[in-house]
Amino acid sequence: MEIREFQDMMKHLYLKRDRERGVGGTFSWLMDEVAELGEELKGNDREATEKEFADVIAWLASLANIMGIDLEKAALNKYPHKCPKCQSSPCACTF
Ligand SMILES: [Zn+2]
Asked: Residue 90: exposed, middle, or buried by beta-carbon count in 10 A (0-12, 13-18, 19+)?
């Protein structure tokens, strides 16, 4: 499954509810899920961490759906198989 297919699946599952919640509410959920991921990263529960990654990408897809943004297109436009700063692959930027 590609990013676009995942986003379409989320659209099919949740778009009606996501639209009713709106951009602000959905962004707030995304931020809550990012915070939960941050908490899981402090521990060593691999399965719980994996679920938080799933929640983050799901809420990101929901937010993109409300905004009419194609995540796959946006991601590949910004990261076209090379670093957008140094234009290299792998990235050769200095830390
Ligand atoms: Zn770079």
From this structure: exposed
Ligand 1 centroid – CA 95 distance (Å): 9
From CA 62, how far away is CA 54, in angstroms rounded?
A: 12
Q: What is the pTM of this model?
A: 0.93
Q: How many CB atoms lie within 10 A of CB 26?
A: 23
* Per-residue model confidence (pLDDT) at position 1: 86
Q: How far is the CA of 88 from the centre of ligand 1 (A)?
A: 6
| Residue 81, phi-psi category: left (phi > 0), alpha (psi -120 to 50), beta (remainder) | left
